[in-house]
Task: inverse folding
């Protein structure tokens, strides 16, 4: 059985940014507000609303910000499918 660490919670003020280095496989979840995620060498940015999650899928730097107001989120272990592949979701 694979144990996953408890997610680390965070709060951001409007336009505040946190950086994640080499976080591929980590899951970012929006708890309140909206989060904007930008990953190195990825032309597409991700915007999460409350209840949505995204699995970082690139090595290097990822920036997580609160673009329009205060936001809260959590960063935890990777979500994987039955075959062990990391899932990318932001629906």
Result:
């Amino acid at each position: 059985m694979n144990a996953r660490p408890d997610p680390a919670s965070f709060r951001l003020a409007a336009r505040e940014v946190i950086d994640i280095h080499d976080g591929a496989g980590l899951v970012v979840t929006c708890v309140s507000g909206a989060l904007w995620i930008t990953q190195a060498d990825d032309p597409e940015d991700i915007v999460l609303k409350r209840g949505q999650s995204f699995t970082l899928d690139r090595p290097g730097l990822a920036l997580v910000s609160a673009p329009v107001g205060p936001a809260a989120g959590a960063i935890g272990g990777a979500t994987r499918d039955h075959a062990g592949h990391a899932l990318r979701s932001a629906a």
Notes: The domain at 18-76 is CATH 2.60.120.10 (Jelly Rolls). The first strand starts at residue 8 and ends at 12.
